[in-house]
Design goal:
Elements lengths: L1 E6 L4 H11 L3 E6 L22 E6 L2 E6 L1 H12 L7 H34 L5 H16 L2 H15 L12 H15 L9 H12 L1 H9 L3
Parallel strand pairs: 1-2
Antiparallel strand pairs: 1-3, 3-4
Helix pairs in contact: 1-2, 1-6, 1-8, 3-4, 3-6, 5-7
Length: 220
């Protein structure tokens, strides 16, 4: 049975969603973030980087430990099925958005989140200066990128029910993208009024039985 090492408020939740869609049995081992929002040291016993998600599985008799959520998504789809036959355009969409999710979208959201935390951790007498500098950086380099990215996604989802054109259900790109899209909502970077197609897409994912089952086994 696959073991998923699951950290709260992390990319691990989308791995549970994928496993539920594939109907593959798995066990969840839960970890809670520390007050500084970092993963607990116990995850270092599973993987040298101490990150989550991490899965354990048996592949051709060999015990494997695999980290990085995009790699896990590709591994699970290749081993346990669920890959669709897509058109050339759909295949390119699937490839692009699977890698875009972690290389472009999530870093923008993470930087924005962390900038807001750094100032609060500075010595009290330096916090005004830190807030000024970090706010200026966010306004100059982070905030201009989020509207461009969210508008691109909005236009794509306005014309396609899934990220891979022509697909009849979620593909690797959808499993990869959902966490970033939820982050846009949490960060108030988009609203239902400004980006209705993204909002409908998230609601559609959240309503899927497999996603709801994954929440029960993981965390809201």
């Amino acid at each position: 049975m696959i073991i998923v090492h699951h950290l709260n408020n992390s990319r691990a939740q989308r791995i549970l969603w994928l496993l539920e869609e594939l109907n593959v049995p798995y066990e969840v081992r839960k970890y809670q973030r520390m007050p500084n929002y970092k993963a607990p040291p116990s995850l270092l016993e599973i993987h040298p980087l101490g990150k989550s998600p991490v899965i354990e599985d048996s592949n051709e008799g060999e015990h494997i430990v695999l980290a990085e959520s995009s790699a896990i998504i590709m591994y699970l789809l290749q081993k346990y099925g669920g890959k669709q036959t897509l058109s050339s355009a759909g295949t390119l969409d699937d490839l692009y958005y699977t890698y875009y999710a972690e290389s472009t979208l999530r870093p923008l959201i993470v930087v924005r989140q962390r900038l807001s935390r750094f100032a609060d951790r500075a010595p009290w007498y330096l916090r005004p200066l830190f807030r000024y500098v970090l706010e200026a950086y966010r306004v100059m380099y982070v905030d201009p990128e989020l509207p461009r990215n969210s508008q691109m996604i909005q236009e794509h989802l306005s014309n396609n029910p899934w990220f891979a054109r022509g697909s009849d259900g979620p593909t690797a790109a959808d499993y990869a993208m959902i966490f970033g899209l939820e982050g846009l909502i949490v960060e108030r970077a988009i609203t239902p009024e400004s980006h209705p197609a993204i909002t409908r897409y998230i609601d559609k994912i959240h309503a899927r039985p497999a996603y709801r089952a994954a929440l029960k086994k993981g965390a809201e």
